[in-house]
Design brief:
Mean pLDDT: 89
Helix content: 55-70%
Strand content: 5-15%
Radius of gyration: 24 Å
Low-confidence stretches: 1-7, 9-16
Strand order of the largest sheet: 6-5-4-1-7
Order of helices and strands: HHHHHHHHEEEEEEE
Number of strands: 7
Shape: globular
Oligomer: single chain
């Protein structure tokens, strides 16, 4: 028992030490940014990420530091990461829109059915955590409705319980679908940003492939299969090709 207690105490001390280290890095990064040492600030923020910490505000700060360091691709990447964690982060939305003006590739988007656009807009309203909380709340409301319907001797209460439970069930299913969709963005991400200044898109996963077109840093794309260090990509205007894996960064 004494040995187990000692190990637990050491683990707790390690966690507290890691927390102190991260706090110290935040302060260092903030000081570097205020002194216009933007690249150093970005390096220090990256150390925080390397410690296993992620937050929308952290990636927002990294986006600012990257843009100030003339790293447009990474600026877009970090703003996208911030919005992935917190879709309601208004400052990240504003800055992403601002830096996107500097992208060389201003691509047209392939038209899609309005229902798909509508569904995507709904599930992007909240983060994974937000949708999870909504699902739990709706599940509790559904149970309350079912219990009211089963056990209440009062007819109006039974009716209210039935319709409340039914509505909560439908909304629960929808919120769970949104949560699963959000979860898949983290477990199986398929979006990325070009971080190299420019990259030639090939017709095949090989340097000998035909040159199709050129993409520049900051361009967002969808990833497909991977073959020997090459990634099949699809851009918003529908064009498809292959680029080296190291020319992009996953959101």
């Amino acid at each position: 028992m004494k040995k187990i207690l000692t190990i637990s105490m050491l683990f707790l001390v390690a966690l507290l030490h890691a927390g102190d280290r991260v706090d110290s890095l935040f302060i260092q990064a903030g000081e570097a940014y205020s002194e216009a040492s933007f690249e150093q600030a970005l390096v220090t923020y990256q150390e925080i990420v390397d410690h296993g910490y992620e937050a929308a505000d952290l990636y927002y700060n990294m986006g600012n530091a990257a843009f100030r360091s003339n790293k447009l691709g990474y600026a877009v990447l970090y703003y996208e990461k911030a919005l992935k964690l917190d879709p309601s982060h208004e400052a990240a939305k504003k800055n992403r829109s601002y830096v996107s003006r500097y992208k060389e590739d201003q691509l047209e988007r392939v038209p899609e059915l309005f229902i798909r656009t509508w569904i995507r807009a709904i599930y992007q309203l909240f983060s994974l955590q937000g949708w999870s909380y909504i699902a739990i709340t709706l599940f509790a409301l559904m149970l309350a409705g079912v219990l009211g319907y089963i056990f209440s001797p009062v007819l109006p209460v039974k009716k209210a319980g039935f319709f409340t439970g039914l509505a909560a069930l439908l909304l629960f299913v929808l919120s769970m679908a949104a949560a699963v969709n959000r979860h898949s963005e983290f477990t199986s991400p398929d979006s990325a940003i070009i971080v190299h200044p420019s990259v030639v898109v090939k017709s095949t996963p090989s340097l000998s492939g035909t040159d199709l077109f050129v993409l520049h840093e900051g361009t967002k794309l969808k990833m497909g299969e991977e073959v020997s260090g090459w990634i099949e990509i699809t851009i918003s205007d529908g064009r498809v090709g292959w680029i080296p894996e190291d020319s992009l960064a996953v959101i």
